[in-house]
From TrEMBL:
Residues 21-328 form the UvrD-like helicase ATP-binding domain. Belongs to the helicase family. UvrD subfamily. This is DNA 3'-5' helicase. PANTHER family: ATP-DEPENDENT DNA HELICASE SRS2, UVRD / RECB / PCRA DNA HELICASE FAMILY MEMBER.
């Protein structure tokens, strides 16, 4: 792509009739729209990406220079896919100069160019990536004495705070249009459930975090520079284009056509950017579906973007694409029933229209626990493959609300020899916190084995609660030294920790480590008791304070939930050795299971956005799982209906991934907690008879499946 206008290459010969071939009347209306603002309400499976691509191709084919067109997508993957399809339609040379990418990539490009021209060397900046953020957060939250050589503030503030939660809150506030000086106001508005001390703590952290990004405070870097995080790219670009008249004139004149995909998942700041860039020509073409807005934790509110369209553009055109070409009729009917309960402005509500006849009815099933649910899924999957010979493993997807729920299904698939792959995440036993906790278990069993040595090196620097600091300051240099001494003395790494000669500070740290392992060993004979002892000895605190509990960027997956899952899984074993052997086998089998391209797909609902499969299992469809307990809010013991809104849309997205068949299943108990079926089930009357059957069923198949699984496990 070019920053300056280039002579527009002549596109390869395009027959416009051929370009519009196959479009229905509503799709053609969107495709043919040229001047003025337009909102395209596009449901799941409506062919909206095809319409968007063909509209861009038509504009270029009719003579619009590609560098006069700016396209924003939700992900880089979507941008790459759109670019490839445009090249196939027009030829590579014809799309040179086209701006296509995410809001973040466009803003990065603008800031690099404009700041360099305006400020020279002083306009240089580096990205505040995850590694930088982690180090800086630790220094901000740490004790004053531990960071006395650094400027205070922003560092050494001695605060107890989950850094991941704080960064997520800051990101949401910035995307909603607030700055750090409005911290308390912003956080109180966005998180009404937060108590005043938490609001003040996060607001204080926010101000320190912004200060730490200034060049003079970038003292933890070898080459200090001003830092911008991903939210800053949006905010600073907005400030530049809004306040700098020269930049505003340049970029408002630069583009004649602006197209925004997935508008329901744009933030307030992104929406302001889009409207600003379209201010001069008014040719803003946005595509969205309020029913699929599932990124509220990023400051995305469809009521302020898609549903604010007519307020911003009173003369704008609204085009509906209700036809669903993806799913058979029953899937569409059930999904429509669910989303009909959403609190949406009827002007922007879109009910899908099926283009395919109704076929298989959904599968609904209640189970005692997630283990039984997973075995049921495996049996259903096997049955479907045996009765539908043209289906492959890749035609199936298992969708769950958060990553922690994958464990039982991974175990069941591995034991059944069914290949699977996890999209946008890591397999359960390879997650950092799971491997850490298993390392404690290994050391409580045999610290002198080869596995014990690897476990030692993994968690040696994680201090116990009694140590008083988050780490023991026994880094890679120390570990390498001990390794060399152990090899020289022909003993284990753990034994060398006892025999070696170290500084007083190192001796104190080693003694803390050895006492911690001894206490875990003496806590009890079972795997569960020792795992819990490891968590209580300080590991849970370390996870929250160092890495943050959130496993993702706000979808709801939790590291502590993963640890809860591991502890729950340990109940199946009495001896710790048996559990370690089982987990080792699962890890080896999982590697083999993921090697082939034909594999069952496992992922969170958020990661499934934009994808489709012939058969979809939506698992954990229970109260407090979907809807997820972290999203629910109560007043005087009463559930607030608005806290269900985004969770309902998540369920809607999950169901609409299915082309032929979908299943909803749920456990009655999970991690020793009683659950009820998801409240969304009663919102889909077509499912009522199936819900009744599922609730009445005694699930003899659970008992049979469990007996079979026990036989396989014993083998």
């Amino acid at each position: 792509m070019s920053d300056s206008p280039l002579p527009s290459p002549t596109p390869k010969s395009i027959d416009l009739d051929e370009l519009s071939a196959g479009l229905n009347a509503q799709q053609f209306e969107a495709y043919a729209h040229t001047k003025g603002a337009a909102l395209v309400l596009a449901g799941a499976g409506s062919g909206k990406t095809t319409v968007l691509i063909r509209r861009i191709a038509r504009l270029i084919a009719e003579g619009v220079p590609p560098e006069k067109i700016l396209v924003t997508t939700f992900t880089r993957r979507a941008a790459d896919d759109m670019s490839e399809r445009l090249v196939k339609l027009l030829g590579e040379e014809a799309v040179v100069g086209l701006w296509i990418g995410t809001f973040h990539s466009h803003c990065l490009r603008i800031l690099k160019k404009e700041w360099a021209e305006r400020f020279g060397k002083e306009g240089r900046f580096d990205l505040a990536d995850e590694y930088w953020q982690k180090r800086v957060c630790r220094a901000i939250l740490g004790k004053m004495g531990d960071y006395k050589s650094l400027p205070q503030p922003p560092f050494g503030q001695n605060m107890k705070l989950d850094p991941k939660l704080a960064l997520l809150a800051i990101s949401t506030a910035k995307n909603s249009g607030f700055d750090c000086e409005q911290g308390e106001t912003a956080l109180t508005k966005i998180y009404p459930d937060w108590e005043e001390p938490q609001v003040h703590s996060v607001a204080k952290f926010w101000r320190c975090y912004e200060q730490a990004k200034q060049k003079e405070f970038d003292v933890l870097s070898k080459v200090p520079a001003r830092r911008l995080d991903f939210d800053d790219l949006l905010v600073e670009a907005l400030y530049l284009l809004r306040d700098d008249k020269k930049a505003q004139e340049e970029y408002l004149s630069k583009f004649d056509y602006l197209l925004v995909d997935e508008t329901q998942d744009t933030s307030e700041v992104q929406w302001q950017l889009a409207r600003l860039l379209a201010k001069k020509h008014g040719n803003l073409f946005i595509v969205g579906d309020v029913g699929q807005s599932i990124y509220g934790f990023r400051g995305c509110d469809p009521k302020r973007t898609v549903m604010g369209f007519q307020a911003s553009y009173p003369n704008g055109e609204i085009i509906r694409l209700p036809a669903n070409y993806r799913s058979q009729g029953t899937v569409v009917t059930v999904a429509n029933e669910l989303i009909a309960h959403a609190d949406l402005d009827d002007r922007y509500r879109l009910l899908m229209e099926p283009t395919r006849l109704s076929a298989q009815e959904p599968w609904l099933s209640q189970h005692l626990d997630a283990e039984a649910e997973a075995l049921w899924v495996v049996e259903r999957l096997r049955e479907q493959l045996s009765t539908e010979p043209n289906m492959a493993f890749r035609d199936f997807a298992l969708l769950y609300r958060t990553n922690a729920y994958s464990r039982c299904f991974e175990d069941a698939l591995i034991n059944a020899g069914i290949p699977y792959q996890i999209t946008g995440g890591t397999s359960f036993y390879n997650r950092k916190e799971v491997k850490d906790l298993l390392a404690y278990l290994q050391l409580s069993v045999d610290p002198n084995s080869e596995a014990g040595t690897e476990a030692c090196k993994r968690i040696l620097n994680i201090a116990s609660k009694k140590f008083g600091r988050p780490t023991r300051s026994l880094g890679m240099g120390f570990i390498k030294k001990v390794e060399e001494q152990a090899e020289k003395n022909k003993c284990s790494f753990y034994e060398m920790l006892k025999k070696g000669v170290y500084t007083t500070q190192q001796e104190v740290a080693i003694l803390d480590f050895r006492k911690q392992i001894k206490e875990i060993h003496e806590a009890g004979e079972t795997a569960q008791t020792r795992l819990m002892a490891a968590r209580l000895s300080g590991y849970d605190d370390f996870i929250v304070n160092e890495d943050g509990d959130s496993e993702d960027e706000g979808e709801g997956s939790s590291r502590l939930d993963n640890l809860d899952e591991l502890v729950a899984a340990s109940q199946r074993f009495f001896a710790p050795e048996a559990m370690l052997t089982f987990v080792g086998g699962q890890i080896r089998k999982a590697k083999d299971a993921g090697k082939g391209q034909d594999a069952v797909n496992l992922m969170t609902v958020h990661k499934s956005k934009g994808l489709e499969w012939r058969c979809v299992f939506v698992v954990g469809f229970a109260m407090n799982l979907l809807p997820h307990h972290r999203s629910l809010r109560y007043v005087d013991g009463e559930l607030l209906p608005d806290s269900l809104e985004e969770e309902r849309r998540i369920a809607y997205v999950a169901i609409t991934r299915a082309k032929e068949q979908f299943a909803l299943s749920w456990p009655q108990y999970h991690n020793a907690k009683a659950l009820g079926p998801s409240p969304f089930l009663i919102e889909m009357p077509t499912l009522a008879p199936l819900v009744d059957d599922a609730l009445r069923s005694q699930h003899k198949e659970d008992d049979d499946a469990q007996a079979l699984a026990d036989e396989e496990f014993e083998e």
